[in-house]
Design goal:
There is one protein chain. This protein is α+β, with helices and mostly antiparallel strands. The protein contains four helices and 16 strands. The chain has an eight-stranded mixed sheet with strand order 2-3-4-1-13-16-15-14. Strand 11 (162-166) and strand 12 (174-179) form a beta hairpin. The two termini are 15 Å apart.
């Protein structure tokens, strides 16, 4: 597969404000503001090859997100500082039934859940974000599908509960699939974008991605230059135009 991961996209009622929250929290910068879309980009030192993209949608958030970010911390004091900073910026604490755990569950100003992790060796070199975490009924199956689409190999397993992919460069975030039996109810407010290389034929790449296990996902919108598909567990994603 020739596609690569290029964006993590977050639906937002107020994209500019939400992008400002995340840029301030992560220490990143707003790189693009165009037609209501706002892109936040990491410094080169973080090793991220994708943008956080905030796009306007009219629908309110209804359920817990199936994809969320885990943030890194270097010490317990640093973890507490990150939590305090998030709350000062407009975030809030969230109780999802997590109980007494060493990480802290928060939500951004539009209710998107994220976690501030305690220090963990696995994430020591990821930059501000440790992981893009995806709920999965079958983590092994879903990780295998996304490994094909991104070119990121499987580099971590925790029994049958979690499977993690890491970019070939060994830098930037993990893409992890965590066992969760919740049933998907509505369109995800957070999704991934992939893109083929500039010399590829878009239609041929879409056909290849569908052959790998994706399915068309008609969301009833206008005709677009990219194609919306869903992965084997129904999570929407976009195959962007070649670039």
């Amino acid at each position: 597969m020739t596609t690569r991961l290029v964006n993590l996209v977050i639906d937002a009622a107020r994209p500019e404000a939400l992008a400002g929250f995340w840029a301030a929290l992560l220490g990143w910068h707003v790189a693009v503001e165009e037609d209501g879309e706002v892109d936040v980009r990491a410094p080169e030192s973080d090793g991220w090859d994708l943008d956080l993209v905030f796009v306007p949608v009219p629908e309110p958030k209804e359920v817990k997100n199936r994809i969320h970010l885990d943030l890194t911390s270097t010490t317990r004091a640093h973890q507490a500082e990150l939590v305090s900073h998030a709350l000062e910026l407009g975030g809030r604490r969230v109780d999802l039934g997590q109980g007494d755990v060493p990480w802290v569950v928060l939500a951004d100003p539009e209710g998107n859940e994220f976690c501030v992790l305690e220090p963990r060796e696995r994430y020591a070199d990821t930059g501000a974000v440790a992981s893009i975490l995806v709920d999965a009924h079958d983590p092994e199956l879903l990780a295998g599908f996304w490994a094909r689409l991104t070119g990121w190999p499987i580099q971590a397993r925790e029994g049958d509960a979690l499977v993690g992919l890491r970019g070939p460069s060994g830098r930037g975030p993990w893409l992890e699939f965590l066992r969760n039996d919740d049933v998907k109810q509505v369109k995800n407010r957070v999704h991934l974008d992939i893109a083929p290389p500039a010399d590829a034929a878009h239609a041929a790449v879409v056909t290849e991605v569908i052959a790998a296990g994706a399915a068309p996902a008609d969301l009833g919108g206008p005709a677009l230059p990219w194609r919306v598909l869903s992965d084997p567990e129904g999570n929407e994603f976009c195959v962007l135009t070649p670039r």
